[in-house]
Predict the 3D structure of the following.
Amino acid sequence: MIHRVAIVGCGLIGHKRAKALAGARVVACADVRRDRAEGLATAIAGADPTAAVPVATDDWRVAVNRSDVDVVIVSTTNDVLAEVTRAAVDAGKHVLVEKPAARSLAEIDAVMEAVARHRRLVHVGFNHRYHPAVQKAHTMVRDGAIGELMFLRGRYGHGGRMGYEKEWRADPAIAGGGELIDQGVHLIDLARWFLGELTTVDGFAHTYFWPMPVDDNAFMLLRTRHEQTAFLHVSCTEWKNMFSFEIYGRSGKLQIDGLGGSYGVEKLTYYRMRPQMGPPETTVWEFPETDSSWAMEIREFMADIDAGRMPDAGLDAARAALVVVHEIYARSDYDFPRR
């Protein structure tokens, strides 16, 4: 089935989503800046001269309510993610919404209520799950390559840029928080994907460097009911962009480094313990090709729609991440979340 798609939010992520939509047809582009909607529509038409030029509009409701749309991609700022998603579900559309899917539990609960009423599917854009090194590591863990999981350690950060404190991510009313709700939800989601439900939350968020009313660093200590532990740190004072995710089992370790681009070549290292212990056997896989996570994520969601299957990276996963975010903000005297 060829799905007909409306893209709401035509910035950088909207363009990434459009490029990954093999096998689907974009019929509408919406953005509060009409020139950006027109720019994406023109780019889409240029990539496939045989296809009709998508309609461009500055009113997302027009795009969402079109009768020729069955899937909506929501790649807006955080303050309207939930509103657009809920409206799309009410209009009978399936939705891919970017993380964190909402700024608060109240916002995401309202979306979940709409989904329950209309029985539509919503996938949340946790594209880090779909990086090849992460996919391979998850399969190896599932297959017992490192034995029973004990704990994991994740670090993720960038260094910002001049004027970062003036961007929308620095405005709590728009973003719903700072680095924790931005890059932090990716690490929280990966920790939960590998370890299972996180039942105990400890952590601290703080603003160390950027003159903004949101956090620029967050530290998390999360545990399952079996005391498997995730120690996570996200930062926008990481002066050299980095991604590191280490998974420790009783018989080995998996280490993921890099995400491509400025984060370095994506790499998975497998350390397999020997019976006599000592230095482990080491195997390294590198993934130097272009980031394929966006295309793989879209393909999985389209397959979910065709099969009527609930997305694995869905609203439940987003809500679980927001629970952690809210707990840590409460402990850190930030009052971002709106209940």
In short: The two ends are 40 Å apart (CA to CA). Residues 78 and 175 are 5 Å apart (CA to CA). DSSP finds eleven helices and 14 strands in the chain.
